[in-house]
Amino acid sequence: MAMTLRLPEEDSAALARIAELQSRSQTDVIVTALREYIERQSRTALIEQVMDTQLPRYAEALERLGR
Domain range for residue 50? Predict the structure, then answer.
């Protein structure tokens, strides 16, 4: 899917420098960064979900272990 991305001039210049230093296209740098962000957010959401569902289940045992 084609998409337009508007960046502040400062970010656009930084992206251009990084892409040039890495001999990659700006699109490739952005796609890689986006995929990494999505992966981190997915992991964070999964951890939060597990904590929300499992922590209460083991709260008493964890409380006893903490004494």
Answer: 41-67
